[in-house]
Amino acid sequence: MATTSRLTGTGLTLAYDQRVVATDLSVTIPDESFTVIIGPNACGKSTLLRALARMLKPRTGAVHLDGSVITSLPSKEVARRLGLLPQSSIVPDGITVADLVARGRYPHQKLMRQWSKADEAAVSEAMRATDVAELADRIVDELSGGQRQRVWLAMALAQETPILLLDEPTTFLDISHQIEVLDLCAELHEQGRTMVAVLHDLNQACRYATHLIVMRGGQIVAEGDPTEIVTSELVHEVFDLRCEIIQDPQSGTPLIVPEARRRVTASS
Ligand SMILES: Nc1ncnc2c1ncn2[C@@H]1O[C@H](COP(=O)(O)OP(=O)(O)O)[C@@H](O)[C@H]1O
Ligand SMILES: [Mg+2]
């Protein structure tokens, strides 16, 4: 069965001023996949996500959304189909949680249109799903990093887009909130949304991804079903880490066990 894709990048050169991050990079996000992007620091994961979300114009090549070159589409049009949770965002001064999440509804609001029931419902559902409802009246600036991360995620969810790009959505979160966020992503994926997330934890990536994209130095070096592509050779090549791969006892997916530096003995 051929993969269909609403979101693709072809022959991309991605750069900031003098710094070229990627050349001739092509990527296909399979529709209704939960695509996870992994790769070492500074390999271009965030840059690729920005290009896919129309936040960075490729120097050459093009990103297509539903067959149109994304930079030719009006930004509000793009924002109704695709949401991006950036790796870091600046919180507007003095804004409350409820007001920040409500900003996710902007692409759905028509000129001169009042706040609608649908807007209200989307905001409260997003706040419920991310467990921030009780923070509604708090000032975002005064929250912990983990709480703030969930508020940004709520804002992206409130946008109610069929495609959602999340850049390190689990950063700053404690382990149970990490799993909560990933389970929520999996649930959204099961409901038919296309999810794309950059993750650092390889084991979580292997568990949740239906399609894994492995990057290094601005290139995709492997992609596919994690169970088929993740090997200790690949992890060594990409992360320069010696490891053993065993089966995750819960999910059956690859579990990366880094080689110990020295033997730990019971008596020491
Ligand atoms: N705004 C920017 N201006 C200049 N260089 C940047 C900018 N953002 C990222 N870079 C550089 O681009 C490269 C890729 O960065 P990034 O895509 O953020 O990597 P990753 O998300 O994989 O850690 C890095 O060398 C980084 O320093
Ligand atoms: Mg990044």
Radius of gyration: 19 Å
Spans of at least 5 consecutive residues whose pLDDT stays below 50 are none
The sequence of SSEs as H and E is: EEEHEEHEHHHEHEHEEHHEE
* Count of DSSP H/I helices: 9
Give the number of domains.
1
CATH class: Alpha Beta
Give me the CATH superfamily. Answer: P-loop containing nucleotide triphosphate hydrolases
Q: What is the helix content? A: 25-40%
Number of strands: 12
- Class of secondary structure makeup: alpha/beta
Strand arrangement in the largest pleated sheet:
6-7-8-3-9-10
Structure ligands: adenosine-5'-diphosphate, magnesium ion
- What CATH architecture label applies? 3-Layer(aba) Sandwich
Quick description:
This protein has 268 residues and is an alpha/beta fold. It has a single domain (7-258), classed as Rossmann fold (3-Layer(aba) Sandwich).
Written description of the protein model:
There is one protein chain. The protein is of the alpha/beta class and about 270 residues long. The chain has a single domain (about 5-260), classed as P-loop containing nucleotide triphosphate hydrolases (Rossmann fold, 3-Layer(aba) Sandwich). The chain contains nine helices and twelve strands. It has helices at about 45-50, 75-80, 95-100, 115-130, 145-160, 175-190, 200-210, 225-230, 230-240; strands spanning about 5-15, 20-30, 35-40, 60-65, 70, 80-85, 165, 195-200, 210-215, 220-225, 245, 255-260. Strands 6-7-8-3-9-10 form a six-stranded mixed beta sheet, with helices on both faces. Helix 4 packs antiparallel against helix 5. The chain is globular. The chain starts with 6 loop residues before the first strand and ends in a 10-residue tail after the last strand. The mean pLDDT is about 95. Magnesium ion binds near residues 45, 46, 87 and 167.
